[in-house]
Design brief:
Pfam families (chains A, B): Asp_Glu_race
Function (chains A, B): Provides the (R)-glutamate required for cell wall biosynthesis.
Catalytic activity (chains A, B): L-glutamate = D-glutamate
Oligomer: homodimer
Number of domains of chain A: 2
CATH class of the largest domain in chain A: Alpha Beta
Enzyme class (chains A, B): isomerase
Shape of chain A: globular
CATH topology of the largest domain in chain A: Rossmann fold
Keywords (chains A, B): Cell shape, Cell wall biogenesis/degradation, Isomerase, Peptidoglycan synthesis
Strand order of the largest sheet of chain A: 4-3-1-2-9-10
Helix content of chain A: 40-55%
Radius of gyration of chain A: 19 Å
Strand content of chain A: 5-15%
Distance between the termini of chain A: 41 Å
Structural class of chain A: alpha/beta
């Protein structure tokens, strides 16, 4: 047995109104925040988008690990009861370190998505679409095969999906004020479909029956990806699954917000264009983001 | 990407009335079967207790892996839609191999229990009680720290708990016909409490706030173990958690039994004393086991 000193055994609080901390390199993590808001409408959320240093993909894992430590610390200082690393690259780079550092539970998006896929596949052939960095980290393959050694994982880097999702959001018609009616509308240009077909063809040929959307941007492209893969393929959203895990952790720790607690959403960005974040973010979050504050971490 | 040939992508069946296969070296796995029957009352179960070769603990992992292959194959031949390895030693020895071998999902009891503990702990100090073989395999420590690298795991081998559970079941008063009234009554002798205190003292001193019952026999001792650990310590039953995982897998695959399906429970043992299995097993399963059939695997 380890010889470290025992910590205090605090009795379980029945409720905890503190917010959940969520962060990403930019907007993608807002799909996780959206799923949280849907599944846990009483929970407050503090969201930070590290737009100033976006994207994380091309950076070294060590550098991104440093960002995770810094942002996690900032969220913990703001009194969050949990931290969700809503970015696959940051999860691969810094999850374990963050779990060892911070006094609150920290989860990433990889394990929840991997677990859902391992449970869902019927033919033991699971596909993963993700950024190049995530595919190269092998994080999903390892996590899925850790749960079920009988599953073959087929991973494909689909770097342009981030750009397509962002373009599609920008091109969605109508003024920002109408964002709720645009809820699931990401504009799909024919050119986007061609790109998707090319990316996804190897996974179709491989006969996967389950496909993990291994980037928090990709749930925005569910219609596009699902259309190409066909209805018999189950799409797994890491964002939805991460929100489910948050719910389970809060339930197990009796740490839900009170029944009469009014959820508050706070948005921060390290970037300078607050109006851009507000407008674009509202469409991803599917609720009006009234104010965004700049935070200087860099 | 792997180059193996694509498998057929079968459309998801809406329902599947096939039974769930459950096995253990003896009676312990009946706590898993009991939790399954409680959580999923429409599901049929085929249970095999490998009493002729019980206990698995002192055997080599290679030998136990062979048993898992043999029993898993027997269950698959009986048409089960899933296999639950309801034994920690057998999970450590043969889960991955079984997942690679059998055409149906195979789960063990370690990962579900580890996951529940990682989600439940508030002070990041988790205890595990298990047989010597399970503790030495480090299976729980690895599984818990894979999910949350910030958790310290304190494991203690409690070999006599199996014997105490079985003695306590035998000593429970009243005729077998009254087993339902004995449902949660495992007779606790004062000597049992002394043994439990001695085993659990290091975990109490370590300040764990969550304790995994890492052997399928141990849920029978929940009252004894909980009494010694105190109410502020959350007890995690691997049996309950494994049943939850089965439910999730069936839900994700649309493989539940039909709403009007009448569950059938079949019990088999490799041992010779069918009456002993029937009487003792009924008390663990908490439902009358009408017939037990001998099966010759050895």
């Amino acid at each position: 047995m380890p010889s470290s000193a025992p910590g205090p055994t605090a009795p379980a609080p029945a409720f905890d109104d503190a917010p959940i901390g969520v962060f990403d390199s930019g907007f993608g993590g807002l799909t996780v925040a959206r799923e949280l808001a849907k599944a846990l409408p009483r929970e407050s959320i503090v969201y930070l988008g590290d737009s100033a240093r976006c994207p994380y993909g091309p950076r070294t894992l060590q550098e991104v690990d440093g960002f995770v430590q810094q942002i996690g610390g900032w969220l913990v200082d703001r009194g969050v009861k949990m931290v969700v690393i809503a970015c696959n690259t940051a999860t691969a780079a810094g999850l374990a370190h963050a779990q060892r550092t911070f006094p609150v539970p920290v989860i990433g998006v990889v394990e929840p998505g991997a677990r859902a896929a391992a449970h869902a596949t019927r033919n033991n052939r699971v596909g993963v679409v993700a950024t190049k960095a995530t595919v190269e980290s092998n994080a999903y393959t390892k996590a899925i095969r850790h749960l079920d050694a009988g599953i073959t994982v087929f991973s494909t880097a689909t770097p342009r999906f981030v750009e397509i999702a962002e373009q599609g959001i920008r091109m969605a018609e109508g003024p920002l004020e109408n964002y709720t009616s645009l809820a699931s509308k990401v504009y799909i240009r024919p050119a986007f479909e061609e790109i998707a077909r090319e990316y996804l063809e190897p996974l179709r040929r491989a006969g996967v029956d389950t496909l993990v959307l291994g980037c928090t941007h990709f749930p925005l492209l569910k219609a596009l990806i699902g259309g190409v893969m066909g209805r018999e393929v189950t799409l797994i959203s890491s964002s939805t699954e991460a929100a489910r895990d948050v719910a389970e952790i809060l339930a197990r720790r009796s740490a839900y917000a009170r029944a009469d607690h009014e959820a508050r959403y706070e948005f921060y960005t390290t970037g300078d264009d607050l109006e851009e974040f507000r407008g674009f973010g509202s469409r991803v979050f599917r609720e009006p983001i009234d104010t965004v504050a700049h935070v200087d971490l860099v």
